[in-house]
Amino acid sequence: MSHSRRIDIGSPTLNEAFDELRADYDLSKQTRFRRSRAGVSAVGKHADYHYRSESQFFRAMELSRDIDRNDIVVGQAVDRLVANVIQDGFSLDTQVEPLTADERREGKRRRSSLDDDLTARWKAWAENEDACDLAGEADFHTLERLTLRHSIVDGDILHLPIADAGSLETCEAHRCKTPSNTSRNVVLGVLLDETTRKRLEYWLTKEEVGISSIVTKVGNIRKYPARQRDRITGRDERAVIHCYHPKRKSQTRGFTAFAPFGMATEHHDDLQFAQLIKARVAASYAILEEMPPGLPGGAKSAAGATGVQSTETLSDGTSRDLDGLGPGMRYRSRPGGKLVGFSPNVPNPEFFEHSMLILTFISINLGLPVQLLLLDPKQTNFSGWRGAMDQARLGFRNLQRWLATSFHARVYRWKVRQWMSEDRILEAEYGRIGEQLFAHRWNPPRWPYIEPMKDASAGILRVRNLQTSPRRLAAENGFDWWEISEEAIQDNGDVIRNAKRKAAAVNGEFPDDPDRVSWREVLCLPTPDRVGAQVTPTESSQQPITQGAADE
After folding, report:
1. Is the pTM value of this prediction over 0.70?
2. Predicted confidence (pLDDT) per residue in 391-414, tens digit
3. How far apart are CA 445 and CA 448, in angstroms?
4. Radius of gyration of the chain from Cα atoms?
5. Which of 92, 120, 338, 343 is 20 to 30 A from 247 via CA?
């Protein structure tokens, strides 16, 4: 008997069904091939929606702090990132009264007395721990380093400018909280305007709140206005310096940079611990006893003790003896038993590849080449090292620009306003030039050349071909061109004066010698390629010098 199978032409084939499954935007489709993500809204939400659970927000912060404190890799990775971005600190370049083009052509100094005064004031304040930090423990360089580090680990950090003391009070991120009994539009301790999301107030817990205390009342916090009207400038100036690195415009608070790789870090830490235990066991004499069937003898036979013994009670009420494991142990078999050595491969080859993969996850999330994280460039060649460092420095410069804008510039503006309130002369200068009084630039540090000769030659070539200016090239390397040029002119002038004195002394010793010694012959200055390093006397200069020419 024959059977026939009916084929439904209208039903899609497997390939057609798969193509239909992948149609349009695959990202928005929920299928059994994709995991379900919690906290994803189908109608679109602002950034703060994903931090709607304040307890989970602060738990993530504390977990990141624990990883930073205890993990064998991550804390060092953050230190490496901060060290590359901050280095010796940012340098201030005040630009209150820049010279005009005519004044520059006349060779006048770029910096005015007002520039020098503000720079001296800033340096005296920034290098004084008691003046800079309300707690008297950190100078400005320490604060800028901690600001970047907290923004990476915690997500954000807050500084309160204290006008009476002229110092900064630093508040860690966990102090900015929302009490449970408020109905106002407060997001993680920040009061927002209901229409523009503009920050109105920061609600901070008191520093003496206990370890296990829970903020339940509005009275347990202190409210700080985000901005206050300044008497001199007439503007709403920042009263709280909130430093965080947002990924969305609607993000009110920062979030830890450890979020993408936190779970991988925990597995890496556990894996390292397991390998250490495994290596410790393998370092001992590990002996396995094989017993033939029917061999008489109980658990306590002629076998010798292997170390400290203990008894373990099992779930069925029986017990068994446990022999401790330790280096150099000796194990004697019972009659008829066979001892087999156990020597595992610790660690196995796959361990190194897996560990490097996790370290790579950590590195790319922090913007570090894995070779820089490990301080070991042997896994790549010179070209690979230079390419990785060039890409990493793009991220370093981005962090430098963010830090200079969100922290340095705001602190400097607050200090200038404070100096104006204490100095009527400075206040009068503001009345004369206005906002120009706050003009300045932060010069972030740069990195040493990877190939000094090639990089320095490239800089010279760029200047000669008008691809950049000397001042911009100096700024790229973290220097002030006007300061360098003035120092170079001063140094060269001093050495030329000494050379001329020496040449005059030599010529005075030999007044009858027709060959007069030039100061260039006792000094060799570095000169551009188009000018000779040393002037060679021409034939005419070799002729006897007349009295009149000598007097000239």
Report:
1. yes
2. 999 999 999 999 999 999 999 999
3. 10
4. 36
5. 92
